[in-house]
Amino acid sequence: xxxxxxxxxxxxxxxxxxxxxxxxxxxxxxxxxxxxxxxxxxxxxxxxxxxxxxxxxxxxxxxxxxxxxxxxxxxxxxxxxxxxxxxxxxxxxxxxxxxxxxxxxxxxxxxxxxxxxxxxxxxxxxxxxxxxxxxxxxxxxxxxx
Length: 145
What we know:
By secondary structure, the protein is of the alpha+beta class. The protein has helices spanning about 15-20, 25-30, 115-120, 120-145; strands at about 1-10, 35-40, 50-55, 60-70, 75-85, 90-95, 100-110.
């Protein structure tokens, strides 16, 4: 399973990266999060782990542990689901757009397991729709701050 999304934010890459990696703000833009627990002490960095409980529309709530597997401020963040229903990777690359803003590219990919594997196209569409919502909320939150 794989999908890619691109969007722009009218804030510099440093602001966008810092907001995205601030685990206390995660539920403010990934709106299906019911709880977020930081498992690694200290500031966000390579190896930071977070336990998330997520309740997408029409689905049962599930828990997963996510790790920052690339942390290159302000241009690249990669996360990997190390514990949860699906071992998915998300990679965000951030580039200055020349007007003080940021161009963001997100790639989500992973090998689906269990029942999700049989419903791969439907799962991909649902996840892509959720990420579109997340990215729109991320953009709005940053632009009004």
